[in-house]
Amino acid sequence: GNGDRLCFNVGRELYFYIYKGVRKAADLSKPIDKRIYKGTQPTCHDFNHLTATAESVSLLVGFSAGQVQLIDPIKKETSKLFNEERLIDKSRVTCVKWVPGSESLFLVAHSSGNMYLYNVEHTCGTTAPHYQLLKQGESFAVHTCKSKSTRNPLLKWTVGEGALNEFAFSPDGKFLACVSQDGFLRVFNFDSVELHGTMKSYFGGLLCVCWSPDGKYIVTGGEDDLVTVWSFVDCRVIARGHGHKSWVSVVAFDPYTTSVEESDPMEFSGSDEDFQDLHFGRDRANSTQSRLSKRNSTDSRPVSVTYRFGSVGQDTQLCLWDLTEDILFPHQPLSRARTHTNVMNATSPPAGSGGTNPGSNGNSITTPGNSVPPPLPRSNSLPHSAVSNAGSKSSVMDGAIASGVSKFATLSLHDRKERHHEKDHKRNHSMGHISSKSSDKLNLVTKTKTDPAKTLGTPLCPRMEDVPLLEPLICKKIAHERLTVLIFLEDCIVTACQEGFICTWARPGKVGLLSSQNQANSPSGTVV
User: Fold this and answer.
1) Basic residues bias located where (predicted)?
2) What single DSSP character describes residue 416?
3) What number of CA atoms fall less than 13 Å from residue 495's CA on the CB side?
4) From CA 52, how far away is CA 80, in angstroms rounded?
């Protein structure tokens, strides 16, 4: 109904609006709440979905000088200010999130590389906290706060080197994925404070992270311009995606398009309408998780899985990706109904599919369930998008094998290396001058710096030719400034850019609901 609220920050200002999605643009002249800060500016925020009602909402706001504020923008209350005297951490807040399932616990990450666990009921004290080591491991340490009475922070995590750029809780709330400026993804068991697994970026820092709806896969993005898919169960990289031309700032799974289908092996033949019907047998997000859990337990017909995720970057582009069974389970035979490449989507969009914006050609976000990215001959010869690729020679070749098993996924390792040896990976030529964004080396756990040359080619960071390379289903320039937000909702996708445009893109099939656009000079936004 009218339950959605939108919060965004621009410069020193924070705005809070009723959000109507695809139905109507927000009335920018009537914010529910607007705050202007002096001496510091908001950098990130998070709603508590557990306690949110129509009359009240708990909103955490992180600031550039290290403080965290708890406010209720509906009741216009400023509840509390944490780290007010900056005795806990003086560096910028990079990420703040409520602990899943908790009304009072929240986690805050800083550019110092530290994370702190707070309880809204406790004070922060008038002196700097004293810490006691709780647990230490490879490149991380966790301390408890030593004091006579319970005070914030409850825990201090020191993770990796340089800034801790983002973290994300698993869907069940038990695990925590962190990405840092040192290029590492680290996944922890949150309660037992154990390191579950790690991964290293191909190049540079990792900037963003997200979990699949079932918690089986993690996707990261960063300064190597790649999206990287990591298996939580196997603790290994299973694919990389190359479509962005600059740093990837946000990655997010689309729970409404992630599909699980029980499909009989069948060969496709028929009209566009039949092809469209094939795709719309997918389940919606509310049952996605339970269906995904059936994936490995079913004994009858094969269950086919397609995960959809998106990414936005500093290159102003939105990319959509499908993670399909030929990538997830390369040693299992594919259902033939699922092996049509996105070449077919690009050349013959299903009838009646609506575009995502007024100038769309109708196939930007179509038939999400079953597309398989075509194989790539070389890692550095990617077309800009699947659509522009439709008429090229390699696509026609790939289209010829569309009714068979995806060629790239079934290549032997030797074959793949043969195809890659003719051109080395040259993606780094434009990045050599970039230095680490954070010079803050406080509280380093270990002085031994990881040599990138030693991790390349290991399970931590496989070579480009050793893992499948995904191509985006669509890669579209949607802004003039770098993109900072990507949120998937049931009937739309929300994006925002540094220039201050928050755009609502209607999903295909939402009749007569074209994109509405709010300008608010907003570098970041979130939807509750």
Assistant:
1) 417-430
2) H
3) 28
4) 17
